[in-house]
Structure formats: structure tokens, C-alpha cells
Amino acid sequence: MRTAAGGHSSEPAAGRGSRDRQVRRDFVKHVIKRHPDAETTATARCVHPDCGWEAPPTGDANECADWCMEHTGRTGHGIFLRTFSTTEQPAAYVQPRTVVGRWEMRSA
Fold it and tell me: 13, 69, 91, 97: which sits with the fewest CB atoms below 10 Å from its CB?
């Protein structure tokens, strides 16, 4: 038997009383990705309490990482807060990835 939610049910026939039934629920997992037309900006700042150093915004995440490593080499500070942002629309899109199904026990 097909259920309204798109699952399958082994529900008892009418008139047989109330019993447990097994229902299959299908879900689609999605993943969110950066849109290929969006420009991404990376920046970082040192989180050492006595330091106010910040990497300038750049479109290249590897360049931002290089600036962080250079700062670590000069100061010994090795913990940073990195920020990535998109500057143009559309910034992201959702893409279906896999269908996942599971069986659930339901009381009738």
C-alpha cells in the first residue's frame, strides 16, 4: 500500500483491529554548494589577545593562508579566525545528493 507521504505501508486490512505496522519513509539528502558565478572573499584575523592583526580580504583562500603562516612566523601566534563570504548573488544553491530510506514501526 502506498502512503500519502510517499512511503509504503503494511497496514492491516479494515476490520481486523488495531495492530502495529511498518512504514517505509524515503528522504532525499541535499548538499549546499557555492554557486559557480559567486565570488568568494577570504579574510582572517589573529585571535591572540594582544594582537589586532588581520589579513586583507582576497579572492584566493590560499593567499589568505599564506598571510596567516607569515604572521605566525613573525609573531609565534598560530590561531586565527577565518571568514569566507560571497560578494555576488546567487551565492549558493542546494543540490539533491542521495535518496535514503528507512523503515519505521508505527502504531495503527
Answer: 13
